[in-house]
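pipeline: protein-struct stage 2 | run 1193 | ATP-binding cassette domain-containing protein
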Amino acid sequence: MIELQNVAMSYGGSELLSEMTLKLVPGSFHFLTGPSGAGKTTFLKLCYAELLPSAGQLSLFGSDVRGLGRDEIAGLRQRIGVVHQDCQFLDHLSVAENVALPLNATGRNVNEGELRELLSWVGLRAQAEALPPQLSGGERQRAALARAVMMSPDVILADEPTGNLDWEMSLRLLSLLIELNKMGKTVVIATHDLNLIRTAKKEVAARVLRIANRHLQLAGADL
Ligand SMILES: Nc1ncnc2c1ncn2[C@@H]1O[C@H](COP(=O)(O)OP(=O)(O)OP(=O)(O)O)[C@@H](O)[C@H]1O
């Protein structure tokens, strides 16, 4: 569904990522690790075509993005839910309005019952009318996950979703992501947290990718 073949990414003429080949098959669960600045966020941005490769081939759901127009790419991106590292909420809108935003942006009607159900699922039913600055770090991440799931995407990409959370809250977020994977969604989580990876591997057949020296590698089974 997301496929990279010999993909490279450069910023300002300098290559950050090289020769990356990967197929994210439906229902798979991947972690993405690597040192700070290795290119994890950049890799995720390639996966949802926020950035286009400077070389190589990127296909989303069977279509090579090079042959697609902006609207076609935007259409395919609706099948990918993203949990951004910094959540990216509109602070003047309520949590419920932020979560509903992706659907509203496509001109579709929001089913209020489904929205409440989604907020309950992430444990934020009582905070539906709160503003994002009033949420704790864990609540923000769960709201960001709800927003990513709002469009019923096939793929969820989460960039350091537990970065600032305590262990208990990290586990809570992880269990939501595992639940989504068990429902058939493809999940990719960028993280530095090896304990999180080890914990997840007890429950799901997760593969661990690592970015090292500009290349994407499959990490060993010791993780
Ligand atoms: N738009 C951009 N223009 C130029 N350089 C960029 C841009 N975006 C990222 N970079 C650089 O690319 C490198 C990789 O950044 P990226 O955010 O992908 O790494 P990361 O592995 O996610 O890091 P972290 O773990 O710290 O979040 C960094 O050196 C960053 O400064």
